[in-house]
Amino acid sequence: MTEAVTDLVGKHLRDRLGAEPQRASVTFLGVEPIDVLRFVLGDEAPDELVYVTSGCARHPMADPTDLHADPVKGPRAELVVRMRAGSPLPGLHKRLATLAAAPAVEGLILDADALVDLGEPLWDGATCTAVLLSADELGEVELPDPMDPVRLLRAVPITANEAAWVRLKGADALRDVWREADIDVTEPNRASATPG
């Protein structure tokens, strides 16, 4: 059944994005492999890169200390990173797989407005070391009853300063600053927001 979940997620993504992905698989000790799918959007000149994890949603997210966690029902999620094409992002798939493995490894529950700090650059040379989660326009993937749907959560790369701002003022306050400063969060080399 767990492979059926990843198959359903893959079909949903191909239908919604209208493209076949490149796939990179990352393995962690004691955890099933996490795949990172890379979709190139834009016919003539690639315009947007969409990275989506596949494997995080195999099992519901639960507190690892809960000895009676339901193996079927419970929240499921995969992460989506949208970046403007043009810059190489070496190592992004590995860091993204690490974030997607966190529910299985650390019992982390991935949800909208959550701040997940990696503590290292999200890709080699990046100024962003964390992600801020929100619902992605790709929506949810329905699964057979009684399983909960898979939520596709957009993971926006953020800097350490922006992460501190989220801890202090909340996720919406940072999004307001991005809007006011006209910051394009899909630009890999963007400046950090400087909240006033």
Automatic annotation (TrEMBL):
<feature type="domain" description="Suppressor of fused-like">
    <location>
        <begin position="31"/>
        <end position="190"/>
    </location>
</feature>
<dbReference type="InterPro" id="IPR020941">
    <property type="entry name" value="SUFU-like_domain"/>
</dbReference>
<dbReference type="Pfam" id="PF05076">
    <property type="entry name" value="SUFU"/>
</dbReference>
<protein>
    <submittedName>
        <fullName>Suppressor of fused protein (SUFU)</fullName>
    </submittedName>
</protein>
